[in-house]
Write a structure and sequence with these properties.
single chain; alpha+beta; FAS1 domain; 2 domains; seven-stranded mixed sheet; four-stranded mixed sheet; 15 strands; 34% helix; 18% strand; disordered C terminus
């Protein structure tokens, strides 16, 4: 997107920045020592009017209409009001981008508020501060709550990367397709990029897995209650073997009993923690089966190890509404199980989340699949443990596992 497309945004009055500071509780040189609530509200209104006027002048009329459409709802007012507080990065879909969105979606104010929230980052991001692929920058958006509640009240992230160290643009990486953020303009406290498609909200596990790991999805669906338990977990990391990886070891898996199958399955999951690629730099994670994960990286890529099984991470940071998936090129055949260690890891995560102070801090660390770490423009992120509901293998799930194991031996089911 050419910079000239955004030139009109630069017409946003300089006074809007002072107004936003006043409305947000900050200081402005012309502000009185104490401002009344009505004055702050008036400044906020002036600020939003100026911002929407600048977006209109830049030709982003459908975006403005969408913003106006949510202005009379509680959630919409909260979102629009938050724009004036601190620096923000805004990915602004063009009119053409919105033309591909259904009228039903545009008319659903709750859904539309979530979509717009996912286009706003709670910091300033530029290409110079975004990681170079295959590394990723995990950037927190304003989308949180409802189906998008993550442990510690963290907001849903976007995955960013650029294709070279000197690139002047970067990609917003999503499962369906990537979006380029190129030319930009600064309007008051907003750093605005015009993009050519509306970003897709984070998918649920049952929406994402069929596209990225069909056989794994088939497995989860074959065990009663398992898919639902994973989908409802508040914080989840899954190392998902590709179809080729599952096929390569299918005959060996037929030799496992139901308890061993359950162990292998749980040793592909970190329960209660969302470990994006930026956090796969330590071995301080315990699987849902109570086994330790080890992570390594070198010039050939990033790897995860469980017991004696090692797999390469071939696609990282597939964002879920309740966690993240990393695709791996081999099955982690670890039949070990330690329920006490699994419960201890969960308890530690719960305790840490109860005192977490990072709920509104964007994660901007940029270490990932290979290469060194860095940070995006703005504050740096740190790892955290999260409060979650434990994933338990219920009696009905175990019955399904036993049936699945029997089917493997008979060659009727593909399973890892």
């Amino acid at each position: 997107m050419k910079f000239t497309t955004l030139s009109t945004l630069l017409l946003l009055p300089a006074t809007a920045l002072a107004q936003s500071s006043s409305a947000a509780g900050g200081s402005a040189s012309a502000a009185a020592p104490s401002a009344s609530a009505s004055s702050a509200a008036g400044n906020s209104t002036d600020y939003l009017t100026a911002v929407l006027g600048a977006l209109t002048g830049a030709g982003l009329t459908t975006l403005v209409t969408a913003a106006q459409g949510i202005a009379n709802t509680t959630e919409g007012q909260a979102l629009l009001g938050s724009l004036a507080s601190g620096n923000k990065t805004v990915f602004a879909p063009s009119n053409q981008a919105f033309s591909n969105v259904s009228q039903d979606t545009l008319g659903d104010t709750a859904l539309l508020t979530q979509i717009l929230s996912y286009h706003i980052l709670n910091n300033t991001y530029t290409a110079s501060g975004v990681a170079t692929a295959p590394n990723h920058t995990i950037a927190r958006t304003l989308l949180r709550g409802g189906n998008y509640s993550l442990p510690g009240n963290f907001s849903a992230p976007l995955v960013l990367a650029k294709n070279s160290t000197n690139a002047t643009s970067f990609e917003i990486i999503q499962t369906a397709s990537n979006t380029t953020a190129g030319g930009n303009a600064t309007a008051a406290n907003l750093h605005v990029y015009v993009i050519d498609q509306v970003l897709t909200l984070p998918q649920t596990l049952t929406e994402a897995l069929p596209a990225v790991a069909p056989q794994l999805f088939g497995l989860a669906g074959s065990i009663p209650g398992l898919a639902d338990s994973l989908a409802s977990a508040n914080g989840l990391t899954i190392f998902a073997p590709t179809d080729a990886a599952i096929g390569a070891i299918q005959s060996s898996l037929g030799q496992l009993n139901s308890t061993q199958v359950a162990a292998v399955l749980s040793n592909h999951v970190i329960n209660g923690t969302v470990a994006y690629s930026t956090r796969l730099t330590s071995s301080n994670y315990t699987s849902a089966g109570g086994e330790a994960f080890t992570f390594m990286s070198n010039s050939t890529g990033a790897y995860v190890k469980s017991a004696n099984s090692t797999a390469k991470i071939v696609q990282s940071d597939i964002i879920l509404n309740n966690g993240v998936v990393h695709l791996i090129d081999a099955v982690l055949v670890n039949t070990g199980s330690n329920s006490q260690a699994a419960e201890s890891a969960y308890s530690s995560a719960t305790a840490a989340a109860a005192t977490s102070t990072e709920a509104d801090t964007p994660v901007t660390a940029t270490s990932s699949a290979t290469g060194p770490s860095g940070s995006a423009s703005g504050s740096s992120g740190t790892s955290a443990a999260f409060k979650v509901a434990p994933i338990a293998f219920t009696s009905s799930m175990m019955g399904g596992i036993i049936a699945a194991a029997g089917a493997i031996v008979g060659g009727a089911l593909t399973l890892f």
